[in-house]
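Supplementary notes for students who missed Thursday's class. We covered one full example, reproduced here. Read the sequence, then the structure, then the short commentary at the end.
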Amino acid sequence: MTKTEAIMVLNMVEAHGLADEAKRMAIESLSADSEWIPCSERLPKSGRYLASCLSPVFSPQVLNYDEDDGKWFYDGCKSIDFELLTVIAWMPLPKPYGEENEA
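Structure (token representation):
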């Protein structure tokens, strides 16, 4: 759903007196998709790039995680040694920019 479509839906919901609840649900949904997930809570599935927070530098990096061997790696580089850095949290990357994502 584009932002424009979401606004149209909210306008229809508002006309029926349900706007506050719909807005609360939308905010919760958007917030849940953009929050850091601690690795201590759960690890991601393999096969996708993720924003990853490294300690002790706390600098976000784009990494991938391999469930089979429990390792994080940069694009195309397995076996990165994270002796000095530890991945402490992750989150999905946003959708790539495109005109359909505007509005």
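Commentary. Strands lie at 37-38, 49-55, 60-66, 71-73, 86-92. The chain has a mean pLDDT of 76. If anything here is unclear, bring it to office hours.
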